[in-house]
Amino acid sequence: MDASTDPRPLILEPRTVPVLGRDHHLRPIDPSRLQAEALRERFATPPAWEPETRGDGRILEGRASRAASVLVPLIERDSGLTVLLTRRTAALRDHAGQISFPGGRAEPGDADVVATALRETEEEVGLRAATVEVLGSLPAYCTITHYVVTPVVGLVRPPFTLALDPREVDAAFEVPLAFLMTPAHHQRHVFEQAGQPRQFLSMPWSAPGQPGEPYFIWGATAAMLRNLYRFLDA
Question: How, if at all, do strands 147-156 and 66-77 pair?
Fold first, then answer.
């Protein structure tokens, strides 16, 4: 969805939006729940729960939405699970330069949302479907660019080799799942647009000893991670 069809234009400089606060009042997910076997059990017998948000966009009457899927790849490292994320290239039409999960729009030949997520992930970063143990999916999320995105969660056991598609991805990196499932690391940005309050979450991440600006995880990616937090906290 572009700014001409939605009264809420895209946020082009999210780092400059003021931070209202961080969610220190919410408890982090217990480390025992962030183990591979615990996640298998949680997805096999999910609790009653509701996502915190279902999107920052809306379905427009008379315009078909675009189905998409992303993979939330949980890498089984000796130090604990990490989440594999990508940084999109600056030349892309939608979400250029943003931190994302690997994934993309559904194609007619895809059997289901899982097939879309696995195919797109292999195309974008070279992570083969055979290396992914799919656990389940989270509720679909509607983006302001009019994609209805289903996050598919899967475990990945090393070793594996990535091969980034330079047309879509200019970097891939891992963030400890425990960091992302600690709401004290979730920044809440609030601003006013067209007289209405708006807000979004961010989760800036810098690897220990890593120079330069942190990876700025925000928008749909941060919202889907927050929904994962709610699922694990339920």
Answer: parallel
CB 141 within 8 A of CB 54: yes
Q: Which residues pair with 86 in a beta bridge?
A: 100, 172
Tokens of 232: 């694990």
Task: Give residue limits of the domains in the chain.
Answer: 53-233
Tell the residue number behind the tokens 């962030």, with chain if given: 34
- Look up the CATH superfamily of 53-233: Nucleoside Triphosphate Pyrophosphohydrolase (3.90.79.10)
Q: Is 110 exposed, middle or buried (0-12, 13-18, 19+ CB in 10 A)?
A: middle
Do 71 and 102 contact (CB within 8 A), yes or no? yes
Q: pLDDT (tens digit, 9 = 90+) per residue, 41-86?
A: 999 999 999 999 998 766 544 556 799 999 999 999 999 999 999 9
Per-position DSSP letters for 60-121, written without gaps between them: PTTS--EEEEEEEEEEEETTEEEEEEEEE-TT-SSSTT-EE-SEEE--TT--SHHHHHHHHH
Q: Tell me which range, 14-18, 104-108, 212-216, is most confidently predicted by mean pLDDT.
A: 104-108
51: Cβ–Cβ under 8 A, 6 or more apart, which residues?
Answer: 138, 139, 141, 227, 230, 231
